[in-house]
Design brief:
This protein is 46% helix and 0% strand. By secondary structure, the chain is mainly alpha-helical.
Length: 57
Amino acid sequence: MRTLFGISIIAVALVITSWSVEPTVGKTPTVSVDPLGLMASTTNLPQAHYKDYSTIY
């Protein structure tokens, strides 16, 4: 029982350590996205239609 408890504590500590360290690795993107270029190159998009359900007093 003690062995299982010790293994579970070590496993939890390992998971927490690996989860907290991994996001810091590889933060720089290799490909950058140009938002202005994406908006300029889009064609034939449908227009958004909104219904005004506001109450007029």
